[in-house]
Design goal:
The complex is a heterodimer of chains A (261) and B (306). Chain A is mainly alpha-helical and 261 residues long. Helices cover 77% and strands 0% of the residues of chain A. In chain A, helix 2 runs antiparallel to helix 3, helix 2 runs parallel beside helix 5 and helix 9 packs antiparallel against helix 10. The radius of gyration of chain A is 19 Å and the shape is globular. In chain B, the strands form 3 sheets. Chain B has a 6-stranded mixed sheet, sandwiched between helices. Chain B has 11 helices and 14 strands. Chain B has 306 residues and is of the alpha/beta class. Classes of the chains: A mainly alpha (261), B alpha/beta (306). At the A-B interface, helix 1, helix 4 and helix 10 of A face helix 2, strand 6 and helix 3 of B.
């Protein structure tokens, strides 16, 4: 891997970010809107229940941490989609850039933009609701890493489908991550789900993350077992998704990169 | 004898049951400009994509300076580049941003200096801060060609590089290509639908149709294979008599107006044809005789069924 080539793709993405209001709104507008809508709803519920519940912190944490997952997968999908929309794949792949250098640049952008959105949303939560998601400090960091890994494998899976069917299935980039949301127990415990949904939730690393985070918020206790299960599931799915995306790219080269447009 | 820089051996590409490129073998020599011609759908683009590593061949091999593209991809792509009127750059990035990020994808020692050189050569200064979406087709083509020279390539693949350019800019670009070829001994594979341009630039031409190479020769030799010359005549009267004569002699012709006709006559029969006109008292005011050109060859071979 050559760092200058990874940097080239990062630079190309940053230039795009600078010029695109769509990408700006993805980073700031939607997180802000989520925080307003669900934060105000949670404030109302908290007031209705006599202020005895920590629902506001649970919901705000859910929103803010979900951003890490969402941004990580979204940056991977957008890395491909942006090149498809601009018909720029030829310009990129006639250079010595390697496939895994391209992917590494997406991962880096996922981390950078995830961090940007996360700190923005966390700051807004403090300003609007006096709710600090950093209260539990380092205990949250392992969960943040798991969410990042989950975002990566979901992003790779969606991208491998995009490579197979092109931009006509681009809506998967926005819609597919939300399929995981109801089963990830972002705002409620897994035990509150119907039995069949609990079975699905147990297969998703994200459910262990949000369960673990709630445990930290409620009791201050870090659930090591849940963390390990979440990590192993993530690694398994990540390995599968990497095989899928490599296979899809080989297929792209077999059919021709321009056929993707 | 010049060394081959690109060697293509028995290259084939199949898409299911359709064979887009069928067992072609050719080379491009050091410092040579090779015209790669053929009608639409002939297999040119498929071949170029395989030469760039954008498409995996079904069989056959591609070597650059003796190195196989499959196994030395990174090393080879450092030394080649491509420009096509039909590829886009990200439309919301400025010209400078496009050149900058692409410069990082190559191992260019002094990126700023190289970009500054290209900006000067291709007169990009006034449009440097404009986004690609704001450029005219001609400006975009200039940027695309500048991009192709970014890594000072040893091999260039140019797919209709001057299409959509004003004649003066196209001529400037052609001169630049020839100059760069001479200075750095660049090998160029060149496609164009402008046959005059091909004749001006290319030392050798490969003509491909239905995925197969059907000719590989110098432009003048290809044109010589066409027997017919075009005789254009302007007549005040007698056009209908001349048309009757052409019918009678089974000569193909095209009438443009009541006074203007173009007749295809075998080169060896031109003198006899003109004598016949005099004998029949068919008077013409103006005459021009065009020898068979590369364009005639292109038209003839494109229409020919294999």
């Amino acid at each position: 891997m050559k760092l200058h080539r990874i940097y080239g793709i990062i630079l190309r993405t940053l230039y795009g970010f600078k010029h695109s209001y769509d990408k700006m709104s993805d980073a700031f507008y939607w997180p802000l809107l989520d925080l307003l809508l669900w934060g105000l709803t949670s404030s109302y519920i908290k007031e209705s229940s006599g202020g005895q519940t920590n629902i506001l912190l649970l919901v705000i944490s859910g929103i803010v941490f979900w951003l890490i997952f969402w941004r990580a997968q979204y940056e991977i999908c957008m890395g491909l989609l942006d090149e498809l929309w601009n018909k720029n794949m030829v310009n990129i792949f006639i250079t010595p850039l390697k496939f895994w250098e391209w992917v590494t640049a997406w991962l880096f952008m996922g981390i950078a933009k995830g961090a940007l959105s996360f700190f923005f949303a966390a700051g807004v939560a403090i300003l609007l609701y006096q709710t600090n998601v950093f209260t539990y400090g380092f205990a949250m960091i392992p969960f943040m890493l798991l969410l990042m890994l989950s975002g990566w494998w979901v992003g790779f899976l969606i991208t491998s489908i995009l490579m197979r069917y092109g931009s006509k299935v681009q809506t998967l980039a926005w819609s597919m991550p939300w399929i995981f949301a109801p089963f990830s127990a972002i705002y409620y415990p897994v035990s509150s789900l119907p039995h069949w949904a609990q079975s699905v939730a147990h297969l998703l690393p994200t459910s262990y993350v949000f369960e673990g985070m709630r445990e930290v918020i409620k009791t201050g206790h870090f659930d090591t077992h849940g963390f390990i299960v979440g990590l192993l599931l993530n690694l398994l799915y990540l390995a599968i998704s990497l095989v899928a995306i490599r296979f899809s790219f080989a297929r792209v080269l077999k059919n021709g990169i321009t056929k993707l447009y | 004898m010049k060394k081959p820089v690109i060697e293509v051996d028995n290259l084939t590409k199949k898409f299911g049951s359709f064979t887009a490129v069928n067992d072609i073998t050719f080379d491009v020599k050091e410092g040579e400009i090779l015209g790669f011609l053929g009608p639409n759908g002939a297999g040119k683009t498929t071949t170029i994509q395989m030469l760039l590593g954008l498409l995996t061949p079904t069989s056959g091999s591609i070597r650059y300076s003796g190195k196989d593209l499959q196994t030395h991809r990174e090393e080879i792509l450092e030394t080649i580049n491509f420009s096509s009127t039909y590829t886009n750059l990200p439309w919301y990035l400025t010209v400078k941003e496009n050149l900058t990020y692409l410069s990082y994808l190559y191992d260019i020692p002094d990126r700023k200096k190289r970009i500054a050189e290209l900006v000067e050569i291709f007169r990009l200064e006034p449009i440097l801060k404009k986004s690609i979406g704001q450029l005219s087709a001609g400006q975009m083509t200039r940027v695309n060609i500048a991009k192709a020279f970014l890594n000072s390539p040893k091999v260039l693949l140019l797919d209709e590089p001057t299409a959509s350019l004003d004649p003066d800019v196209a001529s400037y670009i052609r001169e630049f290509i020839l100059r760069e070829r001479q200075r750095f001994n660049i090998s160029i594979l060149f496609t164009s639908h402008n046959m005059a341009e091909v004749e001006e630039l290319c030392e050798r031409i490969i003509f491909i149709n239905h995925g197969k190479i059907i000719a590989n020769d110098k432009p003048e030799n290809l044109a010589k294979t066409i027997e017919f010359s075009h005789i254009e005549l302007i007549l005040e009267k007698d056009l209908s008599r001349l048309e009757d004569f052409c019918h009678q002699e089974k000569l193909s012709f095209q009438t443009f107006s009541k006074k203007h006709i173009k007749i295809d006559v075998k080169e060896k029969n031109i003198a006899e044809f003109l004598r016949s006109l005099t004998e029949k008292n068919i008077i013409y005011d103006e005459i021009s005789i065009d020898k068979p050109s590369l364009e005639d060859y292109f038209m003839h071979m494109s229409q020919k069924k294999l």
